[in-house]
Amino acid sequence: AQSVTQLGSHVSVSEGALVLLRCNYSSSVPPYLFWYVQYPNQGLQLLLKYTSAATLVKGINGFEAEFKKSETSFHLTKPSAHMSDAAEYFCAVSDMGGGNKLTFGTGTQLKVEL
Amino acid sequence: SQTIHQWPATLVQPVGSPLSLECTVEGTSNPNLYWYRQAAGRGLQLLFYSVGIGQISSEVPQNLSASRPQDRQFILSSKKLLLSDSGFYLCAWSQGQNEKLFFGSGTQLSVL
Question: What is the rounded radius of gyration, in angstroms, for the C-alpha atoms of chain B?
Answer without folding.
Answer: 13
